[in-house]
What does this fold into?
Amino acid sequence: MVRGELLFDGNVKQVYATDDPEMVLFHFKDVATAFNNVKKAVFPNKGIVDNKISSYIFEYLKRNGVSTHYVEMVNDREQLCRKICIIPLELVVRNYIAGSIADKLGIEDGTKAQTVIYDLYYNNDALGDPMINDSEAVAIGLVSFKDLEIIYSTARKINGLLLDLFGRAGIKLVDLKLEFGKTSGGEIIVSDEISPDTCRFWDSATDNRLDKDRFRLDLGNIVASYEVVLDRLESLNLE
Ligand code: TMP
Ligand code: ASP
It folds into this structure.
């Protein structure tokens, strides 16, 4: 596999073409951003830990029958992924109330949600990623209702699988953010990354935060906390 031109230079990831037109290379930088890029800093080795955690999770999802863009980890910072047409939506799945929804509803961070919450956002930086509802997303041509059915049922399955995985690792899966894309054959698959940058992970015993809230809230020990997540996952004995 040969690395080609830089296709996309994101805040925390770069995407490169490869010599296979169906494949791209994701490169994880040592950067953290929050609040739509208002806050940004470099943390040595963060990209390596993110790449390893996301690769671990995508491998686990693949073994459990979830179609994703992930193919394989190529080295510490890079993974090979299928090239897809990105759907500009983010689906946040919440098992506990935390972050923006805690502020919005005036409920204490860490309160268990009485049902799983699915919040859909339009991935559009210029608009500040507003919340969008299903019929709005269909009405402006982002997806079809059939696509949304697949997206929600995949999200439900992933949430169940990850609740089980992280439960075994002694970690509360507070929330997670998913993105999806379409293959050239029209299949909807999970894309982007699943990591402490895109989920809230709390230690089950102490409620200590092991995710990007350490950066958002200036709690320190960011990479060390991400490493706790990776170590716990890697020490699980999965069949
Ligand atoms: P929120 O508290 O901002 O609603 O975020 C909920 C979860 O989704 C949290 O784990 C962070 C993640 N997330 C992203 O990964 N990217 C985003 O752009 C947003 C808004 C949330
Ligand atoms: N859009 C922001 C980001 O992911 C939201 C956040 O995580 O605070 O950088």
User: Anything to note?
Assistant: The pocket of thymidine-5'-phosphate (ligand 1) is lined by residues 90, 92, 99-101, 129, 175, 177, 198-200 (CB under 6 Å). The radius of gyration is 17 Å. DSSP finds six helices and 13 strands in the chain.
